[in-house]
Specification:
The complex is a heterodimer of chains A (172) and B (444). Chain A has 172 residues and is α+β, with helices and mostly antiparallel strands. Chain A has helices at 11-15, 21-29, 46-54, 108-119, 137-143; strands at residues 5-9, 36-41, 57-65, 68-75, 81-82, 95-100, 125-130, 147-152, 159-164. Chain A folds into 2 domains: 5-79, Translation Initiation Factor IF3; 82-164, 2-Layer Sandwich (Translation Initiation Factor IF3), CATH 3.30.110.40. In chain A, the strands form 2 sheets. A 5-stranded mixed sheet of chain A has the order 5-8-9-7-6, covered by helices on one side. In chain A, a hairpin with a 2-residue loop joins β3 (57-65) and β4 (68-75). By secondary structure, chain B is mainly α. Chain B has 3 domains: 1-142, no CATH class; 150-279, no CATH class; 325-444, no CATH class. Chain B is 72% helix and 0% strand. The longest helix of chain B has 35 residues, at 313-347. Chain B is globular. Classes of the chains: A alpha+beta (172), B mainly alpha (444). Chain A binds chain B through residues 81-84, 105-108, 110-111, 113-118, 131-140, 142-143, 157, 171-172, and chain B through 1-5, 69-70, 73, 213, 216, 218, 277, 340, 343-344, 348-349, 351-353, 356, 358-359, 430, 442-444. Chain A: Residues 7-72, 98-162 form the DUF2249 domain. Chain A: InterPro entries: DUF2249, TusA-like_sf. Chain A: This is DUF2249 domain-containing protein.
């Protein structure tokens, strides 16, 4: 599930007055097809987002503090669907619960996942395998303040997802 | 937003559609406008459009507003247009039917109601096409059912534009020679685009997804690309028949449609054979029965085109396509969709926080089985009445279809009202009681 990233820190380059753009582009050229790029920069590299979008990469931004930013660029083909507020799932803790729900008839997986989440602590993560993309579950997770990422496996027959328990009990 | 939410107005579309279905079936039972040899007969036009637009049109629109976000796994674009679209369609249909009634001398109304109704229908259905099209176009290449739906929407556009031209001539608003000539020969093309192009293609595309979903089948339908290709060829021939060699082009369109239907039938059988869910529920069984009317209906239309039969075979074929295939499929899917959406709407907020009923707790299979059986027997009897020119059999059988639809409507209302749900589970904490005609909006 974990996405493979190459890392490029342009902070030292900028500190030495070196224009980082050519270095970023050569790093992008060197990526393997499914690989993403994790970029560390001393500012939010807004102009780069459009350039990368045209090259087929989506991005997720995280503020590191001290004005520094981490940006994860993902090749769109390999990118996963995720809730609007979900930052990179790479930094989520290990799943405390693994559920194989592929044998359950829909919509039972939805009920099961929502029930398990109620029992978990905020910030804890569950991993689930489903026989279908649970399109009606996504808005319900969002409404309750949980975050999720998910995609189909290589065969396209199993949908796998990580759900991180939200803080509160929204929409009760 | 990722994922699909409940479409607020879908239930309203379904409710209006079912009312039009009952009205249409009662008109048939009363012998109003059907069976008639002449399509241009105003009474026939009223009955046909009550069923085709009032029932099937609204049913398909309501279903698309809910299903397109599921296909796209994205919220519907411009979803605030759903209610205005319904109002425009209802107003347009009322004007159109009144216009037909005035043509037949049943009421005294200005003929301009016809094109006015046609225009409102174009606007309303155009809005539905806009919502679905804008949601599907960005990802249509990845989703074959999405391409089917878009193809259907293109056929809908052709249907609407042709219909609008006819209203100009029928109401004597325009006397342009080419418009009059078009009205004289293009009525079957208008019907073909509407019934087969829009609804048929949409039903086929959507059923690929729904059938493998409901039957838990691994086989997604291998021939679906071929079906799409032949369907597109058929529609192109139908379009060409407007300008060149109408007879030959219509025949070619029928042939391509028949090939598409045959591949589709083979796919559905494969999906049913490789299913993991062994027990077939009533909605799936009724859907599979409804599908049998597709080859029969198409076959009768083709037979009529190939040879000069003394019996009105084409009309019987069209009746079977509309009432057996599309209506049967529609009713069968409503029997699944209404309880599911009601369940999701009612128990979504309570899910995981305590016991909630299962979707199946909202329905009783037995009355549904009986109603579906009665419906299909009545449709067959009515078709025999049409083909053999026995009006009383047709009218009695139409009464039978109306009665079985009434039973199904009562079951739909019971599902919405949570009638069958055990009292202890009916409204757990957090659940919200559903309204009959509209889904309650929830904060996203």
């Amino acid at each position: 599930m974990a996405q493979d990233f190459a890392e490029l820190d342009v902070r030292p380059l900028l500190a030495n007055g070196v224009e980082p753009f050519p270095r970023i582009m050569s790093a992008v050229e060197a990526l393997s097809p499914q690989q993403g790029l994790r970029l560390l920069a001393p500012f939010r590299p807004e102009p780069l987002f459009n350039v990368m979008r045209r090259r087929g990469f989506s991005h997720q931004v995280r503020e590191l503090g001290g004005g520094d930013y981490e940006v994860c660029f993902l090749p769109v083909a390999a990118s996963v669907a995720h809730s609007q507020d979900a930052e990179s799932a790479d930094i989520w803790p290990e799943a405390v619960l693994e559920l194989d729900l592929t044998d359950l008839d829909p919509p039972q997986p939805m009920v099961r996942i929502l029930a398990e989440l109620e029992e978990m602590q905020p910030g804890e993560v569950l991993f689930a395998l489903l026989s279908r993309e649970p399109v009606f579950l996504f808005p319900e997770l969002q409404r309750r303040g949980h975050q999720w990422v998910g995609n189909h496996d290589e065969t396209g027959t199993v949908f796998r997802m990580l759900v991180r328990r939200g803080e509160g009990n929204r929409d009760v | 937003m990722q994922g699909a939410s409940i479409s607020r107005w879908t239930m309203s579309y379904f409710a209006c559609a079912l009312i039009f279905l009952l009205i249409g079936l009662c008109l048939m039972a009363a012998g109003f406008g059907f069976p008639q040899e002449i399509w241009q007969d105003p009474a026939t036009l009223i009955t046909v459009h009550t069923i085709a637009l009032g029932w099937l049109g609204l049913l398909f629109c309501g279903a698309l507003l809910q299903f397109v976000p599921v296909l796209a796994s994205q919220s519907l674009r411009f979803s605030s247009c759903a209610a205005p679209a319904l109002l425009l369609i209802l107003a347009g249909l009322t004007l159109l039917l009144s216009g037909f009634a005035s043509l037949g001398g049943f009421i005294d109304a200005p003929p301009v109601m016809l094109p006015a109704g046609g225009l409102l229908l174009c606007l309303g259905l155009g809005l539905v096409a806009l919502m679905c099209g804008a949601t599907l176009v960005p990802l249509s290449l990845n989703s074959l059912p999405g391409v089917f739906v878009l193809t259907g929407l293109a056929a809908l556009t052709a249907t609407l534009l042709l219909g609008l031209c006819f209203t100009l001539v029928l109401s004597s608003v325009s006397a342009l020679p080419w418009l009059i000539a078009l009205t004289a020969f293009a009525v079957p093309i208008h019907a073909g685009f509407g019934l087969v192009g829009w609804m048929g293609v949409t039903a086929i595309g959507v059923s690929y997804r729904l059938f493998s979903m409901f039957l838990l089948s691994q086989d997604g339908g291998r021939g679906s690309r071929l079906v799409l290709a032949f369907t597109l060829l058929a529609l192109l021939c139908l379009l060409a028949s407007l300008v060149i060699a109408a007879g030959a082009m219509t025949l070619a369109a029928s042939a391509f449609a028949a090939i598409a239907a045959a591949i589709y039938a083979r796919d559905v059988i494969a999906i049913a054979r490789t299913r993991r869910r062994k027990k077939i529920e009533s909605n799936m069984f009724a859907s599979l029965v409804a599908l049998d009317f597709l080859p029969i209906g198409l076959g009768l239309v083709a037979l009529d085109a190939l040879a000069d039969f003394p019996r009105p075979l084409a009309m019987t074929g069209v009746y079977l396509l509309a009432m057996g295939w599309l209506s049967g499929l529609g009713l069968a899917q409503l029997y699944k969709i209404i309880p599911f959406l009601t369940w999701l709407e009612t128990y979504g907020p309570a899910m995981g926080r305590g016991p909630v009923p299962a979707v199946q707790d909202l329905v009783r299979e037995k009355p549904a089985w009986l109603a579906f059986a009665a419906y299909f027997v009545a449709v067959c009897a009515a078709a025999i009445g049409l083909a053999a020119d026995w009006p009383m059999l047709f009218r009695t059988a139409s009464g039978g279809t109306a009665f079985s639809v009434l039973i199904l409507i009562i079951e739909f209302i019971r599902a919405r009202r949570l009638f069958y749900v055990p009292l202890a589970l009916k409204l757990p904490k957090g659940a919200q009681r559903p309204l009959l005609f509209i889904a309650t909006a929830r904060q996203e």
